[in-house]
Structures are given as C-alpha cells and as structure tokens.
C-alpha cells in the first residue's frame, strides 16, 4: 500500500496541474453562468411587461435554449472530472484495473448475492472499477437500488452505497451471510429469504467484538468454522469500523459479495466549491485502498 507522503508527491507533481486546469474551467463556467442568469432575469422581466406577440413567442424559446445550454455545459464539466483523475490514481497504485464512469455491477450479480432478497424494480449504478488483485478478479461500483416496500404502499431505498464482488479463494459449498446487527430490521426481507432457503443462524462465534456487530446465517453444507476464520472476523470488524456504515457480506460458493450501505459519491466534482483539495483526493485514494485491501484480505482468509 502507498503511504500518504508518496501520494502527496504524486498529487503535487501529477494531479495538481490537472486540478488547476479544472479549477480554471470551473471559474470560467461560473462566470458564464452568472452572465447568462443575468440575461435570463432581464429577459424574464422584459417578457412580463411586453405585449408584443412575437416577443412573447420568441423569449420563452430563448430562455429554454439558455437553460438547455447551461445544463449541458455543467453536466459536461462534472462528468469530465473523474475520468481524468481515477485512471491515473489506479496507475499510481499499480492496480491492474479499468474505470468506467457509467458502468455498474450487473443486476444478476446483485440478486445472486442474496443479501437483500429482492429483484429490484429500480437498479442503477456508476463508477465501475474492474480489475485484478494478483490472480483474483474484482468489481466495485456505486449502486442505488429501490423497490416497493413490504409494509407501505410506496417505494423504499433498499441499498445506496458501494457494492463489491470478487472471487473467493475456496468454494464454501453453500452460502454464508453476514448482516449488521445494529440495523438488521432494515434488511428483514433478506433475512427471511435466507431462512426460507434453509439458512441457519449462528448464535455465537466466540469473538465478542464480531458478535456485537454481525448476525451470521449459513447453510448446513458449509464448514462455517473454516469459512468464518479468525482472520475473516477481524477483517469484517475492521471494515465495519472503517466505513462507519452498515456492512453486509455473503459467500455464495466461490463468490464473495460486500455491500456498504452509505452514499459515498466517490470523488464527485463540485461546481460551487473548489476541487483543488489534497484532502478530498486523498480521501478517495484511501477509500480505494480500503476496497482493494478487502479483495486481498478475502484472498488470504
């Protein structure tokens, strides 16, 4: 893992010039935004007091054109930010991976994880990173998953956060689910599906810190002591405490899934605040290190 000092050198020498270029474009866009909004306000006032039919027809079209132009310009600026930075950060980390700003893990993989127990009606994502750590393939992305509520006649947010898939180094011959104990009711539908499909709850692992954070459900075909090793338990505690969010995980035969239920918005650009910040970029770098460490830990567990 690269340390902060090494990343700061990389930031100053490589990322800082890119960020300064974006900062100039951001300020120019804000100036353009201010000018066009002033024009829009003037045209709107003129429209209110005008009784000329041609003007009444033309001005709304012009206002719409200004709105469409600004929306497109802002979207282009924001969408260009991460693709300029993330590939370079991955290269600095010496990670064999590709970044796709509009990509996300497939719905089939999400369902196969068995964590949330739904075939969601709304499933969208972004910021997909696909690569290898050693010989282990992994996929990471942000997901937003929405589905009708069981209790109320409305849609509810099932998941909003970072979802990770990787291959496990061994076949556990069944399924193991780890559910955060503090808010397990939030995923009661997933737990019901686990139990209906034959999973049994493990009462205690012997690790007090782990048992305070997670509930464990598993198939009888699984050698639970072999899968839920002391190393894995300590790693899950570490993930839970680092993320400060709800952390779910499942082993499905030789596949491993991990879901962190929090909207991270990885390295999103801001139009109204400067993005020329070492802390912001370093925060993303640390998060990315954290996800890749999970892949390495699972491979060694």
What would you call the structural class? alpha+beta
In order across it, which strands form the biggest sheet? 1-2-3-4-9-8-5-7-6
Residue runs with pLDDT of under 50 for 5 or more positions: none
- Beta-strand fraction estimate: 15-25%
Number of strand elements: 9
Please trace the helix and strand order, writing H or E for each element. HHEHEEEEHEHEHHEEH
Any idea what the radius of gyration is?
Answer: 24 Å
Query: How many structural domains?
Result: 2
Main sheet characteristics: 9 strands, antiparallel
Shape: globular
Indicate the percent of residues in helices: 40-55%
Number of alpha- plus pi-helical segments: 8
Q: Mean of the pLDDT scores?
A: 86
Give the N-to-C terminal Cα separation. 18 Å
Descriptive notes:
This protein is an alpha+beta fold and 301 residues long. The protein has two domains: 4-92; 96-266, no CATH class. Helix content is 49%, strand content 24%. It has helices spanning 4-49, 53-92, 107-112, 188-196, 208-213, 224-227, 230-243, 278-300, and strands spanning 96-100, 122-133, 136-148, 155-167, 175-180, 200-202, 214-218, 246-252, 255-261. It has a nine-stranded antiparallel β-sheet with strand order 1-2-3-4-9-8-5-7-6, with helices on both faces. Strand 8 (246-252) and strand 9 (255-261) form a beta hairpin. The longest helix is centred in the N-terminal third of the chain and has 46 residues, at 4-49. The chain is globular and about 80 Å long.
